[in-house]
Write a structure and sequence with these properties.
Blueprint lengths: L18 E4 L3 H12 L10 H9 L2 H9 L6 H10 L6 H7 L2 H11 L7 H8 L3 H9 L5 H7 L3 H18 L1 H5 L2 H15 L4 H8 L13 E7 L7 E5 L2 E7 L2 H4 L8 H10 L2 H11 L5 H8 L3 H13 L3 E5 L4 E5 L1 H18 L1
Helix pairs in contact: 1-4, 5-10, 6-7, 6-10, 7-8, 15-18, 17-18
Length: 348
């Protein structure tokens, strides 16, 4: 008896593709700096320039930040606001920001769980009764209570004033760092083609593993010098935002030197035996034993060469119940030329 093929009416919506992006903008580094500036223990951070700039800023800016010290978490929370726009500079952010957004971010940071959605919505819009209900539901600091006592217009004016002064006094000095930050961006983008999002975050943050719950639809990585050696993690509209510390290699690199991932790539293929291995692997999955036999090499030697090809992102290992075998990473092979072309164009 022949079983007919199963027929399916599938009305499920496909899950959105998980995205990971990496970008640097002057405003991101400025927001990271404002966060660091308002911390209680400056010695925890390595970037001496950040605190030199803070000391040279006009007294009014220093005073305003001190008065608004309770808003320290606001600055990384604004990453999400910036990411949803094409804002590049602090001046643009100062013109864009509104009091309701600031209030919403402050209230969200308080982690209130005992208020219903309508009360929270009303509090974010500036309703005084709702705001008092939210404050009663959490252990808010005196400074935060004072902030939320301001109207949305007053909140917007205060934050806009801080950002405007910062743009004049500090931001130009940090803008000089953009080539370094962009170098880190290019490095991580290249790695994103070879790593899973979780592995890339762990590599960028030197060991932080994120729990990708069902609410998380993507990751935004933002390089920073000012927060070294820390990481800032926030979330906005389903995107987990990770501001990570630029590594010493990127920070101290010769600006004309090729990036490490590009060196590793062409070093891996700049060997006669490895090129021959790639040829064998490209014809279909092959075990280490079979590859060693075809190459006439010891398994240990073959393993060493395949390791270099894997590190360069050209080969992957597939583990099955019975064995493991190697296969070509076709997309990364195709990327080799464009990566070199991009590097050459950057230097011109």
């Amino acid at each position: 008896m022949t079983t007919p093929d199963t027929k399916i009416h599938d009305f499920t919506s496909s899950a959105p593709a998980f995205s990971i992006s990496v970008e640097a903008r002057p405003v991101y580094e400025a927001l990271a700096h404002l966060f660091v500036w308002t911390q209680d223990h400056p010695a925890d951070y390595e970037d001496t320039l950040a605190f030199e700039l803070a000391e040279k800023a006009r007294p009014k800016l220093q005073s305003e930040l001190q008065d608004f010290a309770a808003m320290s978490p606001l600055w990384p929370a604004l990453f999400g606001v910036v990411a949803a726009t094409d804002i590049t500079t602090v001046t643009e952010l100062a013109e864009f920001i509104d009091g309701e957004t600031v209030r919403r971010l402050l209230i969200t940071h308080m982690g209130v769980e005992d208020c219903d959605a309508e009360t929270m919505k009303a509090a974010c819009s500036g309703d005084r009764t709702a705001t008092e209900a939210v404050l009663e539901a959490c252990n808010a600091s005196t400074h935060l209570v004072a902030l939320l006592d301001l109207s949305n217009a007053e909140l917007a004016a205060s934050i806009g004033n801080i950002l405007t002064m910062y743009a004049a006094d500090v931001e130009p000095a940090l803008t000089d760092r953009m080539p370094i930050l962009q170098r880190s961006v290019e490095e991580k983008r290249a790695l994103s083609r070879r790593m899973s999002p979780t592995d890339l975050v762990e590599q960028a943050t030197n060991g932080v593993t994120l729990d990708m719950g069902p609410r998380v639809e993507g990751i935004l990585l933002i390089p920073s010098i000012v927060i070294r050696p820390w990481a800032l993690i926030s979330e906005a509209a389903g995107t987990r935002i990770v501001c990570y510390s630029v590594t010493d290699d990127v920070l101290n690199a010769d600006p004309d030197a090729p990036p490490r991932y590009l060196v590793n790539l062409f070093k891996a293929v700049g060997d006669e035996k490895r090129l021959a291995m790639l040829k064998h692997i490209s014809k279909g999955g092959i075990t280490l034993r079979d590859l060693a036999d075809r190459m006439g090499l010891a398994k240990s030697t073959t393993h060493h060469h395949v390791g270099a090809l894997r590190s360069a992102g050209l080969v992957r290992v597939v583990v099955t119940d019975d064995d493991k075998y190697y296969e070509i990473r076709t997309r990364n092979i195709a990327d080799a030329g464009p990566l070199l072309e991009r590097f050459l164009n950057e230097q011109s």
